[in-house]
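Researcher: Structure for this, please.
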Amino acid sequence: MKSLIIISILFNNGGNVAVVDDVVKAMISQNFEVVNLTTQKMNDVSLDLGFMNENQTTDEVKEAVIAEIVVANSELYWVNNFLNSYLFLEKDEWITTGINFDRPNYGESVDYKARFIAKDTNSMFEGVMAVNVNLKNENEEGGENPVEKIDISNLDGQIGEIKLIDKNTIIENFLTLNKIDSSSSNSFDVDKITYESATVRAIDESEIFKGELEVKFSYNYKLNESWESKDTYAHAYNSTQVDFDEHEFVITPKLGVSAFVDTYKKFSFNYSGYMRCDRLGAGEDKINFENVNFSVDLTNGEVLFEQYDYTGNQNWNENKFFVKTKISEADIKISFKNVSTAYATAWNAMWSTAESQLSVSGISFIK
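Model: Predicted structure, token format:
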């Protein structure tokens, strides 16, 4: 009842705390002997703060704790006076140690040995009131239990082969592997992406997931491009004749050239085509190639990967296939070239001929 009177006075005096202080002191000092708190045996207090939300202030938690101390020790004649004195005169007349007035996280329980020390200025109390206080957050008041978030660091991070190096693909594979519905994709973000791994992180706003996880995957970088050269033809008499065709593929790695060449050490490709030489009866004039696979180190340089030729006393001819790699800070260039060359002297009546055709496909990079 006295507390209600004090609140009423506070409103009627425009919130003037000084007026309230005077009233409180007057009310609780009437016919009231000084209580030595050190000699008082206080009952333990256990309070579930689950009914409060996480935005409750320290003062609101404090009020709940003091009220619970009063209820737990209601048999003490002076305890209501303590309530009024502490809540309204705390700064002037009390020192508090051994307790933090914080709402515990859901599922947590904290034990305190609280000490309420009456200052010399306190005219109603002296000594130290010792109370064992247990604060917990089990939501026993019937409120809605918060969802226990899933810590993704405990999930499977071996997400297998991915088709693209991007956030959406990595998240999609991660969700599929761990049987998480695709509707949860917005709960995650991805960073620290390489050609072999990335970090999947639950966003702070997620109500279901928490934590982060390094995921590992295989990524086979392939070019969805191909090339077919023209039929090169060199036909010579009393001269050297050359015909060629070439094509360049340009790769601009999404994560940069340096990260790319640190991961991939070789590349391979499939080639088909033919080579024909005038061999003047010294073997087959023409050879064919069908989907032959060839691998090359991913370094600057040119490699001859196929050749067919003929050398006679007066004539010679040859066909060659080349692959060339040029690596810069900006990109990687891979070029292919087929060259047909023929030579014949004027000392005979025979022409010299070389011709070829090259098709390239299936360029892929190897770790």
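Researcher: Any notable elements?
Model: The helical segments are 2-12, 17-29, 58-72, 79-93, 167-177, 257-263. The chain has six helices and 21 strands.
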